[in-house]
Write a structure and sequence with these properties.
There is one protein chain. This protein is α+β, with helices and mostly antiparallel strands and 316 residues long. It has two domains: 180 residues, 2-Layer Sandwich (Endonuclease, Chain A), CATH 3.30.870.10; 74 residues, Orthogonal Bundle (434 Repressor (Amino-terminal Domain)). Helix content is 47%, strand content 15%. The protein is built from twelve helices and eight strands. An eight-stranded mixed β-sheet has the order 1-2-8-7-6-3-4-5, sandwiched between helices. Strand 1 and strand 2 form a beta hairpin. It is elongated and about 75 Å long.
């Protein structure tokens, strides 16, 4: 189960290591709605028992579980609570109802649980509920933009076999992991797809993962996505930007949701694990970092030119 860790400065990290169960089957839309309802209640100065006494829910523990994303959400109950807390904006009520309904859906990744570590499952579960996703990568093409061939080349090194029998098992696991990564990409094509902003260091373009042919195909995919998809925005941080374009972490993902900034989160990926920042001040800090880096990146025309240049190099 995910555990809250506090490090220097009071920063809150929801850290889930490889092999741990994050309880993330309810950590997507359910966690977002629950956190927002908790914020609304506290802003009104209400205790759990006050809501129970008003007859909106059976017990304080039940409301606590709902706010923590640990129990199923019923859209009518969510709307009743939101209205009790003073929400009157039709757009916000509709957003909460939609998220509550989504939390009840069977998720596509459930059949791939054996191929998804707990720390990654939580990220997948919240991507579909996000209104906006911003990401920064210094080593690899962001997961939501990877071709199957590029992802398979990465998995080959991440999941090596130590024997002939183990190699066969790892090959099957890699194939399922690649399928997960490809299915994840569907979130960018949904009717309610989030706006996606990807900052990619030029070093990513220069590293021919999988060989020239695989990398050329991957760069062509990035070019096509930037050129043709209105909700996908890719920018390259060129070498010429120098140390001003360096981020405090090699892999950053910021997710915002259509409810309230207080439930936004940042995901920091490390080898064999990932950490989640939920403290509003720290989330804001990383949001500002990504905004600053975006302004230092090459513009759209320059980014397409850089991609075309690396594609040409790999075609020789």
């Amino acid at each position: 189960m995910a555990r809250e860790l506090r490090v220097a400065g009071g920063q809150v990290l929801w850290a889930v290591g490889n092999g741990e169960d994050s309880g993330s089957h309810l950590a997507g839309a359910g966690r977002v709605v629950g956190a927002h309802l908790r914020r609304l209640r506290k802003d009104r100065g209400l205790r759990l028992v006050d809501v129970v006494e008003a007859g909106l829910i059976g017990s304080a523990p039940t409301l606590s579980r709902l706010e923590n994303g640990e129990s199923p959400l019923k859209p009518d109950r969510v709307l009743s609570l939101a209205k009790f807390y003073g929400v009157t904006d039709p757009e916000q009520l509709e957003s909460l109802e939609r998220l509550a309904s989504r939390s009840q859906d069977t998720q596509w990744w459930e059949e791939f649980r054996d191929a998804i570590p707990g720390w990654l499952e939580r990220l997948i579960s919240v991507e579909a509920s996000a209104q906006e996703i911003r990401t920064y990568e210094v080593q690899y093409v962001p997961g939501l933009l990877q071709t199957a061939e590029y992802a398979r080349a990465l998995m080959k090194h991440a999941l090596p076999g130590t024997s002939a029998e183990d190699a066969e098992r790892q090959l099957l696991k890699r194939d399922r992991a690649v399928r997960v990564r490809q299915n994840r990409r569907n979130v960018l094509h949904d009717a309610s797809a989030p706006d996606y902003y990807a900052l990619v260091d030029e070093a990513v373009l220069a590293r021919p993962v999988g060989g020239a042919a695989v990398m050329r195909m991957q760069l062509r995919e990035l070019y096509s996505l930037e050129e043709n998809m209105g909700n996908v925005h890719i920018r390259v941080l060129p070498f010429s930007a120098g140390d001003e374009a360096m981020a405090p972490a090699p892999s950053i993902t910021y997710l915002s949701f259509p409810t309230h900034r207080e439930v936004d989160m940042v995901y920091l990926e490390v080898r064999n694990g990932g950490s989640y920042l939920t403290n509003p001040e720290d989330v804001d800090r990383y949001r500002l970092v990504l905004t600053s880096l975006w302004h230092k990146a090459a513009d759209r025309e320059q980014t397409l030119k850089l991609l075309k240049g690396y594609i040409h190099k790999l075609s020789g």
